[in-house]
Amino acid sequence: MDVESDELSEDGEDEELDEEEDDVSEASPPSKKPSIDISSVSFGALAKAQASMPAPGRRRKRGAEPSDEESDSDSGPEEIGRGKPKSAAEIAKRTSKHAPTEMSSKRQVSRRREVIAVPKMEVRDPRFDPLSGPVDEAKARKAYAFLDEYRADEMKQLRAEIRKTKDATKKEEMKRLLLSMESKMKARQRKDREQEVMADHKRKEKELVKQGKQPFYLKKSEQKKRLLMDQFANMKKRQVDRTIERKRKKVVARERKELDQLETRQRS
User: Fold this and answer.
1) Which of 191, 226, 238, 252 is most buried (CB neighbours < 10 A)?
2) Could you report the per-residue pLDDT of 27-36, keeping only the tens digit for each?
3) Alpha carbon of 209 to those of 3, 198, 203: distances in Å?
């Protein structure tokens, strides 16, 4: 009983003190605000003063420490906007490494719609565009014939570098490059010769047509035969024998391959 009476007496004293403080605050006249010329104050000082003022809202009890919620609310907009990092459990996991990754369908659809497709500007080379018409290979070869001289000079310099260099790896690379350039040069020369043979045949046929004769159009097989005859005519006997042997080996290899495929089909 004595303890309860002591607690009641203490509560009564606290209430009396609160009432006296309220009376004193009501009785005291309102203090006049100091007249300050705000235009003379710098922005930095105003920002510091605003930061030191308490945020408007609920009053905090005297002597009470700020709670975690209030400290969170006082944090800047950058901290509020930042979301918490997702835990490992929230991130979707695939059932296996071959399965596709699951994507969330809760995504805002763009309001922009492509009503009329804008034509995209594309860079094109008129030399290789079909809109410019068929390519005349003979005319193009004649127009870029000067490149053969540059290629010949490059091959000459490459041969000199191969003789000078002592690095085996670098020498092998330069030899492969030289072999590729020589092979391309031979292919161009062979193609030029084929075009000359066909142009010569067309020229003769035009002369016969002028004389009133029927033109003779060569078939593909006849064209190959004439080109082969022209090729052998410009070769020596040893070169002809070597070429014939090479072609014979190719034919034998092709026939052997076809025979193996036929046997495999019969077994299956």
Assistant:
1) 226
2) 444 455 555 6
3) 140, 16, 10
